[in-house]
Write a structure and sequence with these properties.
With about 170 residues, chain A is mostly helical. Chain A has eight helices and no strands. Chain B has eleven helices and 13 strands. In chain B, the strands form two sheets. In chain B, strands 1-10-11-12-13-8-7-4-3 form a nine-stranded antiparallel β-sheet, covered by helices on one side. The chains are: A mainly alpha (about 170), B alpha+beta (about 400).
Chain lengths: ~170, ~400
C-alpha cells in the first residue's frame, strides 16, 4: 500500500514538477524561488497530505501559488529580481526593458491582493488551459469556472486600475 | 451561460498583462535536481526521526562515561583490554559527529560533470608514468621535498609509494557555456563578464608523491573502513591568468554553474586556494558530487584548518529505499601554507561498505578520514607550539 502511494507520488512529481515551477515563476519572477516554492508544495503534499484525497493536483497547485505569493510578500528585494528577470528576455531597447520591468512589477503587485484560488485561475488560464482543464486541475465545479475566472479577472483589473489608473 | 464566462475584453486585458509574467523560454526547471533534493530531504527527515533517540542515548552515555571515566578505564584495561572501551567512546563520538556534521548534509553539485566538460582542459606537458619507489627517502630525493604521512596511531599499515613528475594544463574560458549552465541551474544573479571570454588559464602541477593503502582498518573502531585509501601530496599548483582576471570570481561563477546556487556557499568554498585547481584539473568521477567545508583539528578549540570535503554518491532512482543515497568515496583536499615549501594534500578513501549519506557509518568514516588528515598535518610542524 505504502509502495503504491510512493509510486503514485513519484509519478505526480515527474508529471507536474516542471509545469508547477514554470507556473510559479509567473508569481515570483525568479527561477530559483519558483523551484523552491514548487519543491515545498510537493514536500507538504508528501509530508502532510490533504485529509480528503479528492483532487490532489488542485491542492498542489493552490498550495504552490500560496507559497509563491507568501514568498514575494515577505521578499523586500523583489525589485532586484524583477530587474534580473529582464535579463533573460533581452528586449530591443533599455527603455522597453524598463517599461516591461515596471509593468511586470505592477501586475505582480496587483496579483498579491487577490485570493490564492483567483491567482491560480488567472495564471493557469494564461498558461493556456481550457475551462474544462481549469476545473480538473483545481478541482472546482466545471459549471462555475467561467464565473469564478471572470470574478478573478475583474478583481485583478480593479486592483490594477485602483493602483495605477486606467491605461 | 450568463455570468459564467468573462467578457472577451476583460479576458484580453488579463491575458495581455499575464503574458508579461511568462518565464524565460530557455529556462526549464531541472526535474533531476529537484528529485535529488527531494530525496535527500526525505532521507534526512527519516534519519533525524530515527537518530534523535540514539543521540539522546549517546549524550547520556557520554555523561556517564565522563563521570566514571577513570574507574571504567581501569576496568576496561584489566578485564577485557582497551577494545570495547574505545569502541564505546568511538560510537559516542560518531553519534556526536552525526549531529554536528553529517546532519547538515553536503551542497550538491549536480552539474559538475557538465561544467568540467566545457572547461575542456588540455594537457600541455604530461608526466611519464608514475614511478614506484621503495621508501619515502627515495621519494623525497626524486621530488625535492620531504613527504608527510599519517601517524601510526591512526594508520599503522605501510603504503605503496609512487612518484609522478611535473605536468601542465591549459583551458580556455567560454562565457557562453558558463551563462548557459547558470541559466539551467536557475541562478540569475551571477555576473559573467564578457571580458572573460577566450581567456586562457594555465595550470602547472609540480612533482607529487602518492601513497596507497588497501583494506585499511579504522584504528579506533577496529573495523575495516576503507577498501582503498590514497594520499597525494605536492607543492600547490601554480595558476597563470592574464593580468586583471579575477580567478576568485571565476571560481564562484563556476561553482554556482555546477549547482551551488547559494552565493555565500560558493564564496566560502571559492575562497580556498585548493578549489580553483581542483575544478580546472577536473575532479573526474561518474558519481554525484556533494561538497562542504570540514575543519582539521576539529577537536582543538585553538586551531583549525579549513579543508574541502568532497563526497561521491549514488543518487538517482532512490525511490522508497531507506538506505539511499549511498556514499561511495570521501575526499579531503587541503593546503598547508605553513610548511616549507607549502604543500597541498589530497586524501581520498573508498568506503568498503557504501553507506547512507546521513547514517552513523558515514559519520564514522568522516571522523576517521579527518583524524588521518589531522595526524598528517600535525607532523608538518606548522601548528603553533602548544596546540594539539
Amino acid at each position: 500500500m505504502a509502495e503504491r502511494a510512493s509510486r503514485d507520488f513519484d509519478k505526480l512529481f515527474n508529471a507536474e514538477y516542471v509545469k508547477l515551477a514554470r507556473l510559479l515563476y509567473r508569481v515570483t519572477g525568479d527561477t530559483g524561488r519558483a523551484e523552491e516554492a514548487a519543491s515545498e508544495a510537493f514536500w507538504r503534499l508528501y509530508h502532510k497530505p490533504p485529509v480528503s484525497a479528492g483532487n490532489i493536483e488542485g491542492w498542489l497547485y493552490r498550495t504552490g501559488v500560496r507559497l509563491a505569493l507568501d514568498q514575494i510578500k515577505k521578499d523586500r528585494r523583489r525589485t532586484q529580481y524583477e530587474t534580473l528577470g529582464a535579463f533573460f528576455k533581452r528586449p530591443a531597447s533599455p527603455e522597453q526593458a524598463l517599461e516591461r520591468t515596471e509593468e511586470r512589477a505592477r501586475v505582480r503587485r496587483a496579483l498579491l491582493k487577490l485570493k490564492t484560488e483567483q491567482v491560480a485561475l488567472i495564471l493557469l488560464r494564461a498558461d493556456g488551459l481550457s475551462y474544462a482543464e481549469l476545473a480538473e486541475r483545481l478541482g472546482i465545479n466545471p459549471a462555475s469556472v467561467g464565473s469564478l475566472l471572470g470574478r478573478a479577472q475583474e478583481a485583478l483589473q480593479k486592483e490594477y486600475e485602483n493602483r495605477y489608473g486606467k491605461p | 451561460m450568463e455570468n459564467h464566462e468573462s467578457s472577451a475584453s476583460l479576458e484580453q486585458w488579463t491575458l495581455r498583462h499575464s503574458v508579461l509574467l511568462e518565464p524565460p523560454e530557455a529556462w526549464k526547471p531541472n526535474l533531476t535536481v529537484a528529485r535529488a533534493r527531494f530525496e535527500a530531504r526525505r532521507v534526512r527527515r527519516r534519519q533525524i526521526r530515527r537518530y534523535w533517540l540514539a543521540a539522546a542515548t549517546g549524550a547520556i552515555l557520554a555523561c556517564i562515561a565522563l563521570a566514571t571515566m577513570q574507574p571504567s578505564r581501569v576496568y576496561a584495561q584489566t578485564a577485557t583490554g582497551k577494545g570495547w572501551y574505545w569502541q564505546g567512546m568511538y560510537r559516542i563520538r560518531q553519534t556526536f559527529e552525526w549531529f554536528t556534521f553529517v546532519r547538515s548534509g553536503p551542497v550538491l553539485l549536480p552539474s559538475l560533470a557538465e561544467v568540467l566538460k566545457f572547461f575542456n582542459t588540455q594537457p600541455l606537458a604530461e608526466a611519464d608514468d608514475p614511478l614506484v619507489v621503495s621508501d619515502s627517502e627515495h621519494a623525497a630525493r626524486l621530488v625535492g621535498f620531504i613527504p608527510q604521512f599519517p601517524s601510526s596511531d591512526v594508520l599503522s599499515k605501510s603504503p605503496r609509494l609512487s612518484v609522478l613528475g611535473p605536468r601542465s594544463y591549459r583551458t580556455v574560458v567560454r562565457t557562453e557555456d558558463i551563462e548557459r549552465a547558470l541559466a539551467a541551474q536557475g541562478v540569475p544573479d551571477q555576473a559573467v563578464p564578457i571580458s572573460w571570454d577566450g581567456i586562457q588559464i594555465k595550470l602547472q602541477v609540480g612533482a607529487t608523491i602518492k601513497a596507497e593503502w588497501t583494506d585499511v582498518p579504522d584504528e579506533s573502531s577496529g573495523r575495516i573502513e576503507w577498501s582503498e585509501l590514497t594520499l597525494t601530496q605536492g607543492a600547490p599548483p601554480a595558476i597563470t591568468t592574464p593580468a586583471g582576471f579575477d580567478l576568485g570570481a571565476f571560481t564562484v561563477a563556476t561553482l554556482r554553474a555546477a549547482g551551488m546556487r547559494n552565493r555565500n556557499d560558493a564564496l566560502v568554498l571559492g575562497g580556498l586556494t585548493t578549489t580553483a585547481p581542483a575544478l580546472l584539473l577536473g575532479y573526474k568521477t561518474s558519481h554525484h558530487i556533494g561538497v562542504r567545508l570540514a575543519n582539521l583539528y576539529a577537536y582543538s578549540p585553538i586551531y583549525t584548518r579549513p579543508a574541502t570535503l568532497i563526497e561521491e554518491f549514488e543518487m538517482p532512482l532512490c525511490g522508497a529505499q531507506s538506505n539511499c543515497p549511498q556514499v561511495e568515496r570521501i575526499t579531503l583536499v587541503w593546503s598547508a601554507p605553513g610548511q616549507a615549501p607549502s604543500r597541498v594534500y589530497v586524501l581520498s578513501g573508498a568506503i568498503r561498505n557504501p553507506s547512507d549519506m546521513f547514517g552513523l557509518d558515514v559519520a564514522g568514516a568522516l571522523t576517521n578520514l579527518i583524524d588521518v588528515a589531522t595526524s598528517i598535518d600535525n607532523q608538518s610542524g606548522s601548528l603553533p607550539s602548544g596546540t594539539e
